[in-house]
Design brief:
The complex is a heterotrimer. Chain A is mainly beta. Chain A is about 5% helix and about 40% strand. Chain A folds into 2 domains: about 60 residues, RNA polymerase II/Efflux pump adaptor protein, barrel-sandwich hybrid domain (OB fold (Dihydrolipoamide Acetyltransferase, E2P)), CATH 2.40.50; about 130 residues, Beta Barrel (OB fold (Dihydrolipoamide Acetyltransferase, E2P)), CATH 2.40.50. In chain A, strand 4 and strand 5 form a beta hairpin. The longest helix of chain A is centred in the first third of the chain and has 11 residues. Chain B is of the alpha+beta class. Chain B is built from 5 helices and 11 strands; from the N terminus they run βαβββββαβαββαββα. Chain C is α+β, with helices and mostly antiparallel strands. Chain C has one domain: Ribosomal Protein S5, domain 2 (2-Layer Sandwich). Chain C is about 30% helix and about 35% strand. The chains are: A mainly beta, B alpha+beta, C alpha+beta. Chains B and C meet through strand 1, strand 4, strand 7 and helix 5 of B and helix 1, strand 3, strand 4, helix 3 and strand 6 of C. Strand 1 of chain B pairs antiparallel with strand 3 of chain C, so a sheet runs across the interface. Chain A: It is found in: Nucleus, Nucleolus.
Chain lengths: ~220, ~300, ~280
Amino acid sequence: MAALNKEKLKEMGKLCIPGMRLSISNKENIAGPGTYELRGYIYATLCGTLKIEQTESEVRTVSVESPRTPSVLPKTGDVVTAKVTVVNPRMVQCSILCVGSSVLVRPYRGILKKEDIKATEKDRVDPYKCFRPGDVILARVLPMTEIHWYHISTAENELGVVIATAEGSPQGVSMVPISWSEMQCPKTLVKEPRKVARVIPENINHALFPIRDNSTKELEIEADK
Amino acid sequence: MPLDYRRFNGPEDSVSYKRFTKGYLKSYDELYKESLDDKGVRKDGRALSEARSLFARTDMVSQAKGSSYVELRKTKVVCSVFDPREIPHQNEFSQLGQIFCEVKFAPFSCPRRRRPHVPDAEEKALSVALRKALEPTVCRHMFPNYQVDVFIYILENDGSCLSAAINAAGLALADAAVPMYDVITSCTVAIVGEKMFVDPTEAEENLATISPSTPINHGIITLSMLSELKQISDFTQVGSMDVECVVKAMDILDKECARLVPLMQKVLVANVLKCFETRKRLEEEANEKEQLLNAKMDEWKKLLKFT
Amino acid sequence: MAEIYKLIHPVKYFNDYLSRKIRPDGRAFHEQRNIKLNVNSIKAADASAVVKCGNTTVVCGIKLELATPKAEEPDVGFLVTNVELPPLCSSKYRPGPPTDSAQVTSTLVADIIANSKCIDLKDLSIVHDKLAWVLYCDMVCIDNDGSLVDACIMTLMASLKTLTLPKVTYDPETEEISVDTSVRTKLNVNGLPVATSFALYKHEQSNIVLADPSSYEEEMCGGIGANLITCYNNGILCGSQKFGGCNLSIECEEEALKIAKERAQAVEEVVDVCIKNYELEINK
């Protein structure tokens, strides 16, 4: 068992569990996600593997990557996938389903205000011409100002509707974008206005969150402690 | 007592048959003799300072984000943890997230009597003690305005419930990838006079809570520790005892908690390995699916070009 | 990626699998999950059993008590069955009193047990009009991954089959009761009711019957819990309930009944083997 695990461990990198001292905390080593700093050292807060990234010259970010979605909430600046639930003249309400590439077990509520829909011509935006209930959108999380509601924004070319079904079309048939403000159903050929996200690469999440080369340090692995 | 309309109730006057068995009521001395013989050996064959072997595993409940199961011989505890959720009826902005704990005994868990379905005072007290123990452990600033639910279900109670619950909750939180400062471990000691029963059974706990006719030290102490940080996260004492006794007990408990740490670490490491394996398998499956999807996309694109 | 797809296109995701004649967890439509059974693992209860059908885990414990029988039924004891769905078994439940679905499950289990006549309540009587046994059977769900009723019935029956009643002597003059725990008699159990759950789904104009559905499948088929629950005892149908889901064609029903009958035999075998092993162990 131990011998078998050794090989697997090499592939995974160093294992961490909460409270494990990872490195000294100084100018060269910064605590990243999944870690915390205490009295000059960096400790792990999650179960997972150690990731050390060389961000700039001489500066390394020490972080822990969990095999599960960490039980933390969407943070300011995160790109989230959300489903539109309510559209009214002032704002759009939605439920946040994914943060980056990780699926949330519980959806969180999000609000997209009228002025945050587009980057230009903020006053002339009509939410009805941008979103409809049931649309799946990409959005960025704004700083949290209200309890239980996340404010999000689609004021970027890459953000907006990615999946939408035209009125009267059967379930599961998504429209195809034909311009930055219109989508068309391939089956019924109905055109509907939307705030379209610019590109839909086949693998959205890989494009947004490229899996970086992990320059894991070859550290001694304590496998069967 | 008001009737519970949501459940089936038995007759009101029912009593456990154990009340009519021989030797139901025992005197204090008899109980003491039963728990500890002249050679200092306990009823289940342990020495006074010997704890029961702890069995623990994670991933017990498939529907929960994180879960664990802890067994101390007969004491059996299941714990599950869910993702942060909105705090009901809260209107103030709070920087720190909250931990909601609920400890519940199974109706058949206690050897003496049938537990009621409605939460009783003991369950409430355990829930609060558990919450207090977990609060310093979890990085609560990571989920402001939200709460993490920790549910404990005690299937069988044979003493040291609180420490079993804390150990289980620590494992389940780590399994759910809730950020934590350290691994938490906990242990209980029951004190009867000069004798200290480490990791007591239900009978020994019962003995320690009865006040004897002569005033001697008696009571139960539960301690939970963050071993790497050398911090005590919770200290619960029931009963009356002098200061030297408490100091001595804490010393014993400190060592016991430290003894449990490698065991917990082992469970967590095994958990990480397992998670990675499942993730790898899922990724492979996803890749396969993605390829299929891509093929379909091409088909669609071709169709579009025609029209 | 697959998880995201499942979240964003739930119906499409499910249909994709079904059109390939497979279920999302890799089973065939009629395939059931593995059953694991363990009896008498909880010593604090008078009889207990733990069952695991796939991920669904239910623990049953029986506590014995004595009471005076009802005046209108002086020769009848009590069998009190309750199903507990604590919040830890699924994210759908909140702490507090039992939810509607928990009450429905509780009633369903009680009905099945009463209808199957597997326990004669007269066996629980000790002294006419004076004393009778009360069997408190609590089934606690630890992990709810669908087909809850099947698991509840199975663990309840396994516990009842291992239950022994201690000898009670009642002095009519002094009204004194004494219990001798060294002499125990087994409770008479007539047959073994086995419930089988199904989920019904309408897929491309045809009805699909999914045996032993997981909680995800139950949700996709639009029900709280399974859509069809049938129960057999000794080869005789003793209960059949239909809750929501798509309509049921005659062929589908026949198909479901056949599966349920086969399953009843299989489960009976599992329970018998488990109890036999347990009895061998204690007699050693």
